[in-house]
Amino acid sequence: MKEFFENVARYPRYLISFTLGIFFSVFSWVRPLLNNRISAIALLGIVVGGIAFVVLTLRAMLGLSTL
User: Fold this and answer.
1) Cα angle at 60 between 19 and 23, to 5 degrees?
2) Chain CA centroid to CA 1, Å
3) Cα dihedral sign for 45, 46, 48, 49?
4) Where are the domains of the chain?
C-alpha cells in the first residue's frame, strides 16, 4: 500500500512539469511574434477573444446568462 501512495504522490509533480513544458513550448513559438508591435497587438486580440469566447460559451451552456 505504501508503494501505491508513493506512486500517487508523483502525479502532481508530473502534472506541473507537463503543464510548464506545454507553456514553455508555446511561449518559445510565440516569442518571435512579440518583437513586432502589430503582431503583438493581434496576438493579444486573439488571446482576449479566445478567452471571451470560452467564458461566454460556458455561461450560456451552464445557464448563467442573465438575459
Assistant:
1) 15
2) 35
3) positive
4) 1-34, 36-67
